[in-house]
Amino acid sequence: MAANDLQRLEEILAFYRTQPNDVRRALAQRATPRMRARLLDVERQIAMDRSPGALAAVLTDRREMQARHLHMVDQAWIDMAEGREDRVMLSMPPRHGKSRRASRWGPLWFLRKYPERRVIIGSYSADLADEHGAWIRDAIATWGDFLGIHLNPGSKARNRFDIAGHEGGFVSAGIGGGLTGKGATIAIVDDPVKDMADADSPTIRKKTWDWWQSVLQTRLEPDGAVCVIQTRWHEDDLSGRILAEAEANEWRVIELPAIADSPNDILGRKIGEPLWPERFGADHHAKTRKRVGERVWAALYQQKPRPPEGGVWQRAWIDHHRTSVVAFGGLDMARIVVAVDPAGGESAVGDETGVVAAARGYDGHLYVLDDRSASMGANDWGVTACRLALELRADAIVVESNYGGDMAKQIVRQAWEQLQRQGITAGLLMPMVLEVTAKVGKRLRAEPIAQLYEQGLVHHVGTYPKLEDQMVTWVAGMDSPDRMDAAVHALTELADPDQLDTGLHTGADHRLHGRR
Asked: What pLDDT is stored for residue 469 in this prediction?
């Protein structure tokens, strides 16, 4: 093709790129097959310019996974690149594509589109940060001709490389490491926390903060942007400290819990809707929640970290006043109750029914006697509660009835009748069934009981690790698990001064009135 023809072709292709979709479509329909092939290449280039996700779709022939929340990551990159955002905080659960999209496809898209600019990535370790660098470097080496950028032959290290013929490039480092040399237009801090042990370490949190202040931020260009990407671990992790130290409106916060827990969900999800249902459905998350425990679930999956000791209970209040089965055996009890918080009630845990027994002594002290909570259906929890009531000679079974109405009472009656037919009740009368309707928030119900723990008036007879872990890691605003709710119902029933005239003078200030 003659030089004039080549020039003319380039002018046509350049004109084509500037046209809106409908005009480009009409031009392609009228083009010759050879020209149409060239226009298809231009369309791919236009698509790759749009976003990191679009670039990924083109280069992987649409094999790269896409999702609504990943489109939000794409938009954050676009806004940083085009100067509309300079502080972005992104938190979402593990295995939801945040690092792949934000720390790999994002920088690749940015360097392709702006080869004069530079990217920095920092992570809790140099190895992790370098893995991102190696991926981006290898992607440029593999698709360079199609991307239109190549690596500088003299700068191809996984932790530092430059774009041939341009000023742009990439640098990575672990937190605590140096970032000498050229600055960055966009700096990414991805996974600044290794694990829970590091998150709980004040020394490591301080080291991370010092690096953030004295190293990373000093490398930003005047028009640069920074993005912090993580699953949350601790209320004072890097994201938490930044938000505590900075003006709230300085940061665009993209918080994406695994399960929507707010009517103002950033994606418009309904409460209870998973973040990525095509990969991780509600059943998967329920199993994960049970497997990892409440603290890890709240922090890593729901992006609501809480301290090792929650804001309502302290473990010392339980440990310092614990009593043994032998010591308890010498005491007389005024009342014994079994409390049930059925799965699917107010708690969003949804996979356990809380069944907890408690007693009240004539001295006004309260005792947690047993925890039979488990994943079970209505008939099973009814039988479990009745069996426990029989074993302890309980005078009442307290049942959360917010979501069941008279159904809860009927379940207990049917379970008792079943045990009667089996000859297990030994002629004993069925305990009273007291239906509890929660009229106020969980914190208002839990706080007065926690105060009784603090005063040394509640004693655990033996140890109940799962129940106690739920208590000491729960803070207001989080969904409270069913074991804890059942314990609160039992102790509230026993501590209510209207229920018994003797003992418990600490209730005289009416803290426990109207708590249901």
From this structure: 83
| pLDDT value at residue 402 | 64
User: SS3 string of 7-39?
Assistant: HHHHHHHHHHHCCCHHHHHHHHHHCCHHHHHHH
Nearest to 86 by CA among 193, 220, 194, 246: 220
356 and 483 Cβ atoms separated by less than 8 Å: yes
Whole-prediction pTM: 0.65
Which amino acid would we find at residue 257? P
Query: Which of 450, 507, 510 shows the shortest CA–CA distance to 474?
Result: 450
Say what the pLDDT of residue 350 is. 44
Contact criterion met (CB below 8 Å) for 176 and 127: no
Question: Cα separation of 187 and 167, whole Å?
Answer: 16
How many Cβ atoms sit within 10 Å of the Cβ of residue 174? 18
Contact 310, 472 (CB under 8 A): yes
Question: Coil, strand, or helix at residue 375?
Answer: coil
Using DSSP's 3-state secondary structure scheme, residue 401 falls into coil
Dist CA 202 CA 199 (whole Å): 8
Q: Half-sphere exposure of residue 158, counting CA atoms within 13 Å on the CB side?
A: 10
- What is residue 31's predicted lDDT score, i.e. its pLDDT? 80
The answer to whether the beta carbons of residues 187 and 227 sit under 8 Å apart is yes
Helix (H) or strand (E) holding 135: helix 126-147
CA-CA distances (angstroms) from residue 61 to 54, 223, 457?
Answer: 10, 34, 66
Q: Which pair of structure tokens corresponds to residue 152?
A: 């500088």
**pLDDT beneath 50, residues of the chain:** 345-350, 499-516
